Amino acid sequence: MYRGRIEKDFNIWVAKGLLSAETARAMLAEYDSRATVFSAGRVLLVLAAVLLSAAILLLVAANWEAIPRLVRVGGIVALIWAFYGSAALCLGRGWRSMGAALLVLGTMTFGGAIALVGQMYHLSGDAAEALLVWFAAASVAALAFRSAAVSVICGFLAWAVFGQLVTDNDANFDGDGYIYFIPGLIIVVVALVRYTNAGAARHLAYLLALAWLGWLYIELPEAWLAATLFGLGLVAFLSVSLPASPLFRVARDAGAAPAFYSFALAILGLAALHTEIDGLGQEVAIGATTLAVALGGITIAGRLNGAVRFLGYAVFATETLYLAFETLGSILGTSGFFLISGVVVGLVAWLVIRLEKRLGAETTVEGA
How far is CA 126 from the centre of its chain? Predict the structure, then answer.
């Protein structure tokens, strides 16, 4: 998608004489030569590796009783080492796509081996513990081979651990404590993403952080915790969005994600505060704060961050409609609410148009 967009822009600039055709071709060739450029062939190759690993494990499991125990264990270990050894050989010869596929095969086979050996020897433990062992092994493989593909697997395994824990009866403050490993898993995934240049896999870690904090509030629905989430999100958003902040340059190099997810955390805290309000005065105060935060986020980071701008618009419109329904709408009835909603939506549209024009004008001035 991005490649098609820049190629279209290059063609327009070449037609207008702003860019030479040779320079445009050279820039596209440089972009295509990057290892991180999306390739359908690479994706399909990794998908084939996942399917092959599933087929191998199912085949072994189907004939498990007919195979002697020692042969089973030796075969699994040999299979894992064969995949990792072949991956090292391919990567050493520069066959990146094949090496990534073999690493995926090795990592997936290791996870299946944990389940099969545990079942074979009737080892004690639960699924969360097995997933944590699998995550640790995958992290070592991603670090050793500097593999972006295995880093992605680590991100999904972190989500699998979280999903297993929250669906387990022990995923609470009185449980076995594994749920509190999630922040550590998030840190590991983020570190692996940066080390292996895994790119989009960082969103798995950021979304998991939001999900874990949301779970934390569900388990402990207190106003102070909701206010803490809002405060942390707001401080983080300002720290990565204001040019005067020492973190601004680092966050800018990381792309749009730091500003968007910190902004989303602030919105999450405000949403939690809405459930803690008691009375019209608090309701109006929280609503006004939400509107101010939405407009502030658009103003501060919306010009360069489309995700923040979209979220800010959505929050502003939703909060405005919510306030209209809770105040005037409840007094005037359903017809009055729809009338007010139409007026509010029209005002929001007018405000969005004005903001878009202003942001566009600022971009033009800076470009000049």
Answer: 27
How far apart (Å, rounded) are the C-alpha atoms in residues 53 and 47?
Answer: 10
Q: What is the identity of the amino acid at 11?
A: N
Q: Which sequence spans correspond to the domains of the chain?
A: 1-34, 221-368
**Rounded (to 5) percent helix, strand, coil in the chain:** 80, 0, 20
Residue type, 44: L
Dist. CA 238–CA 297, nearest whole Å: 9
Give 253-258 contacts, CB < 8 A, sequence gap 24+: 254/202, 256/304, 256/305, 256/306, 256/307, 256/308, 257/202, 257/203, 257/206
Q: What is the per-residue pLDDT across 303-329, written as a single tens digit (0 to 9) for each? A: 778 888 889 888 888 887 777 776 665
94-123 pLDDT tens trace: 888 788 888 888 888 888 778 777 666 555
Residues 220 and 276 sit within 8 Å (Cβ to Cβ): no
Under 8 Å CB-to-CB from 115, ≥6 apart: which residues? 130
How many other β-carbons are positioned within 10 Å of the β-carbon of residue 95?
14
CB atoms within 10 A of CB 165: 25
C-alpha dihedral sign at 167, 169, 175, 176: negative
DSSP alpha helices (H): ranges in 93-171?
A: 96-120, 127-145, 148-166
d(CA 359, CA 325): 31
Closest CA to 303 of 237, 241, 351, 236: 241
For residue 270 the two structure tokens come to: 């405000």
Alpha carbon 16 to its chain's center: 39
Instruction: For 263-287, write each residue's pLDDT tens digit.
Output: 999 999 999 998 887 777 777 788 8
